[in-house]
Amino acid sequence: MKIKGIKIGNKVSKYPIIQGGMGIGVSAHNLAGAVAKNGGIGVIASVNIGYKEKDFLEDPLKANLRAIDKEIDQAREIAGKDGIIGVNIMVAIQQYSQMVKQAVKKGVDLIISGAGLPKNLPEYVKNTKTKIAPIISSAKGAELIIKLWMKRYNYVPDMIVVEGPEAGGHLGFSEKELDETKRPKLENIIVEVIKVVKNIEKTVKKKIPVIAAGGIFSGKDIARFLKLGASGVQMATRFVTTKECDASDEFKKAYIESTKEDIKIIKSPVGMPGRAIRNNFIKKVENERVKSKHCVSCIIPCNPRETPYCISDALINAVKGNTAEGLVFCGSNVDKVKELVTVKELMNELVGEMQVAMA
């Protein structure tokens, strides 16, 4: 079976691998650019991407809009003219429409959008080259967003990312569904989504790549999903422990030193379940509230007066290296990561394993 890349507009990636967006600041221009340069699709996480800007606390929107421009430019410089750069923009952020518009204005190749259904996303990309992909977690979700976009905008997704329950960060499943005895399998979800998509493709005469995400660790895993009919995979955890990853060395060290027992499903301050490393910070907030000094109004459901801790504070602390006071999101296989490598080395490893498994 020949290994094909993923087609986004007039560009095709060399390999069927998308590096997942990881915020705050874990996947910025260095990582996204390196992945795109080495044949994958690199993705910048947009949520509070301006956290390093001097005016971030005073005017977070202005800082984030300025930073997303910088990050896209710098990622492109690394990736080269043929590299594909995407931006992950969470539906749940307060600044959603502004960040989408800015990324489109900048001419980013792809916007991947989850943490809620991106119902209005097509209206922002009219008459542009930017392609859009919703993140969904079920065939029902895929059918809903496709029908909604077709009815409202006469637009079908340019790609669909199917994120299973083994993913890192916020998850599109209930706590009950995430119980290990009841947890749905990504393989089954992918097959169901592909059935839905194939029926739509017959009507619209357009290919819609379906991307598997969540818990994919090796080239052998990639091959398994390609054989099921997926056009590619999205991986995040493996890319954290690369030299080019934009997170601090301490953040990467937390990944490398983690064990299976450290991986925990937590309840995020915004009410969503998520997967993270149960470090001292998580143990602390299980028992007491940590007040935030500054609120940057990042997530829509968050109530600063009631939240157990500020998720932005916790994520920024972690990415900067203060993991003792930080939230370290991770995928279900983080305990398998044991060394720091370059993006090129990781891509070569994944592609080599994939080729053997596909032979």
Cα shape = globular
Largest beta-sheet details: 8 strands, parallel
Global Rg: 19 Å
What structural class do helix, strand and pairing data support?
Answer: alpha/beta
Q: What are the low-pLDDT stretches, counting only 5+ consecutive residues below 50?
A: none
The end-to-end span amounts to: 7 Å
Sequence of secondary-structure elements = EEEHEHEHEEHEEHEHEHHEEHHH
Mean pLDDT: 92
Counting DSSP H or I runs of 4 or more residues, the number of helices is 11
Number of strands: 13
Residue share in β-strands: 5-15%
How much helix is in the residues? 25-40%
Strand sequence of the main sheet, in spatial order? 3-11-10-8-7-6-5-4
Q: Your description of this structure?
A:
The chain has 359 residues and is an alpha/beta fold. It is built from 11 helices and 13 strands. The chain has helices at 29-37, 60-79, 96-105, 139-153, 186-204, 219-227, 237-240, 249-256, 280-285, 311-320, 343-358, and strands spanning 7-8, 11-12, 17-19, 41-45, 84-88, 110-113, 131-136, 160-163, 169-170, 210-213, 232-235, 263-267, 273-277. Strand 4 (41-45), helix 2 and strand 5 (84-88) form a beta-alpha-beta unit. The radius of gyration is 19 Å and the shape is globular. The termini are close together.
Short description:
The protein has 359 residues and is α/β, with parallel strands linked by helices. It is built from 11 helices and 13 strands.
Task: Give me the secondary-structure topology.
Blueprint: E1 7-8, E2 11-12, E3 17-19, H1 29-37, E4 41-45, H2 60-79, E5 84-88, H3 96-105, E6 110-113, E7 131-136, H4 139-153, E8 160-163, E9 169-170, H5 186-204, E10 210-213, H6 219-227, E11 232-235, H7 237-240, H8 249-256, E12 263-267, E13 273-277, H9 280-285, H10 311-320, H11 343-358
Parallel strand pairs: 3-11, 4-5, 5-6, 6-7, 7-8, 8-10, 10-11
Antiparallel strand pairs: 1-2, 9-13, 12-13
Helix pairs in contact: 1-2, 2-3, 4-5, 6-11
